[in-house]
Amino acid sequence: QVQLVESGGGLVQAGASLRLSCAASGRTLSSRTVGWFRQAPGKEREFVAGIPWSSGSTYYADSVKGRFTISRDNARNTVYLQIDSLKPEDTAVYYCAATSSTYYARSPQAFSSWGQGTQVTVSS
Question: I need a surface site. Which of 7, 10, 68, 124 has the fewest CB within 10 A?
Answer without folding.
Answer: 124
